[in-house]
Amino acid sequence: MDKSINRLLRLVAVLMLVMLLMSSDAKTAPRNVILMIGDGMGPDIVAAAGAYEYGADYHKFGGTKKLTMETLDKHFYMTTFAATGNGYDYTWNNGNRDYPKSGATDSGAAATAMSSGVKTYSGAICVGPDRKDVEIITEYARKMGLKTGIVASANFNDATPAAFTTHNPSRNDYQKIAHDMLYVNQPDVLMATGGLLGTPDDFGLKYFAQVDWDGVVAGKTGYKLVQSREEFKKLITEPAGGKVLGLVPGIKILKTCNANRKSANPAQPTLKEMSQAALSNLANPNGFFVMIEGSNIDKLAHANSLDGTIGETLAFDEAIAATIEWIGKNGGWEQNLLIITADHDTGYLNNVKPTEANKLPAVKWGTGDYGWGGHTNRLVDLYTMGKGSEVFNGLATRHTDFDHGDVTVVDNTDVFKVMKAAIPVVEK
Ligand SMILES: [Zn+2]
Fold it and tell me: What's the pTM value of the predicted model, to 2 decimals?
């Protein structure tokens, strides 16, 4: 009798120890998943930015100095084609330079692939080819007890931030997307441009219904609204404690950065400051998912502005540096997963030739040689590091690419798989 009671007590003690270990593990192991997307940031754009900064870029030209994104411990290439394209042919149809013009994705389909793991048609916002809603990583993360955040340097309801937050068969349904993001889906932190001014100009009523904006100002969404650079900066050191909506009003994109970064509007927050504010307001014991987009690389590449494209890429790289610094102070790589990639290549930049540091490299844009200034179907870079980033290794395949030679490649839908795997399952 005594023996069996002893055994029972021992069993109970062991069980209690196991439960204690499990609960403390859950408490001390937040999993923050940080995805950073350079919109339109093809590999030649990264190379051009490195060429400007250092005279040669580490990855492309074997230079010794790296952009911050290139310091991560894993590098892959990534396919970006949409469901409606013809996939990606590594031979480029036997070396046909016109090949990347066809089958390129838009930001909606690319962001949907990364946020839901589903390839869809261009223009879709987290609906599949059948126009039915697909589950978004932010919806999943929230179910597992994580906070969610979205940061962009263009309007909050542009395709990429929208496809990490809500569902719509068309990215152009701006007013409804704005309403759904702010009143229905409600990420814990949303920072971008797009508040209405008294007289809407650049970002106007086409994008945002007056009644929805009035509701935000009146506090009907439950968000603390911040608009000035000073307010954004204050949030870095003094988190608000609740849901935060940071909208730089009246504009569609932050003032463009030139390569020398001297042209930014001092009245506006930088992408770096927005990222820092978002991270400190999302930090919590259960972890968070955040998507941070350098939105305007694409817009400047469409315009074939090399100065602006490099400037926006370097501004994005500064946001990456601040994020890595934050990771260092908040659990390190053991408790954070960082993924940096692009949704597609824009402008078909090619023939990048470095000159010297702080000088624009010699380049060719697609418009000159191939009559093409839009998105291309070329591979993009994916840099990753931290807890769970090794999952990419198991998904990657080896290829010989016409553009880049022997490469290790993942698909944009793999981004969703890796992020989902990094979020601990919480049974309810
Ligand atoms: Zn574009």
Answer: 0.92
